[in-house]
Amino acid sequence: MRGLFITGTDTEIGKTCVSAGLTHRFAQAGLKVAAIKPIAAGQDFIDGRWINEDVQQLREAGNLGLSDAEVGPLQFRAACAPHIAARLEDREIEREPLLAAVCRVADRADVAVIEGVGGFRVPLTADWDTADLAVDLRLPVVLVVGLRLGCINHALLTAEAIRSRGLSLAGWVANTVDPDMPHLQDNLQALERHLDAPCWGLVPRLESPTPAVVAAALNHHAGQFLADYLTPASA
User: Fold this and answer.
1) Is 15 among the catalytic positions?
2) N or C: which end of the chain has fewer CB within 10 A?
3) How far apart are CA 145 and CA 15, in angstroms?
4) What residue intervals traverse the membrane (predicted)?
């Protein structure tokens, strides 16, 4: 499997928008891209079927014609922590079947963009969490930092947790959650100074954060990383 694991400093900070933007950018470069959200919690009943908004956004950003079930192999109705959502539906989150489902789809692509759920360490079972999922996938990590009060602490702790698991922090994307955040530039400078990884872009607050618009906010680091990362596979 070749790709990226996208995590965030919290829930609701733009992981899916950034994942879709990266997917769009890589597809525009001529690559076959699979955008996958292994676990998705929160569905709405629309036109006779249950739909997860994040799964829909990622499916539309990709270029492999994947189904909802392929993009989101494990989906729950309630918008809450996955282990709670699973309990509410009397279902189990099974590690090996989930990993196998992700790998089957990722193997069809040149690059997979795999989005986590919530922050970096979200419980999935009694002894498995989303950090373990990232380790199982063995992919470089991109951290989405939601720009709002407290983001420096959240970002540095998350970066520390990523590296403590032996994973590479390939880069980070700043997403403007609070456009009125005081001292935004000072916060960005602190993040750049302390995260010890390249910033892949600053996404402004957008009324319509389509994959193409988000992709346009990403900088050269995303493309350069992908070129460097894929070179050994094509050499």
Assistant:
1) no
2) C
3) 9
4) none
